Amino acid sequence: MAAEAGISRRCLAKWYARWRAQGENGLLDHSSRPATSPARTPEDTADLVEALRRQTKHGPAPLASDLQRLHGVTLAPATVHRITKHKRTRPYAPRTNGKVKRYSGTLSREWAYVRDYTTERERRVALMEFANYYNHERPHAALGGRPSIGRTAGSDYRIVFDQPPEPLADIPQQLTFEDFA
Question: What residue intervals traverse the membrane (predicted)?
Fold first, then answer.
């Protein structure tokens, strides 16, 4: 019977056991994500690592040392590297590209094709307003109905049309040749 369905006997046995225990609901897709991750780095610790990284521009080993010395937090340099590593999206890979595609679809449904724009400026203002709404007010199911800005520690930045963003006080400014003269 498993061969006819194109699945292994082990898979068939697992599905049959689920069907016997839970009925039709047992055959629905189950998430492969673990229910809990007890070894996961706490979110406030990850936020601290990211903030310290932005302030110091140090690599993983010096950051781990700074965390221990300044905050009494002990993390392996490999853990610091995992937290601070820039994550790239592989093209055509739904597992890593899904959030980008989801946001693009949301833009299409909730902003781009909702109404006609008579000028480019009007379209850009509407985009800025939508981005602020999306980040600060719109509930996100993956975040338990909270807006996404709550995931970024210490940030309440809103986009303002025709006004360049203010530089952040805790980020070093770019040096020029005049600084060395």
Answer: none
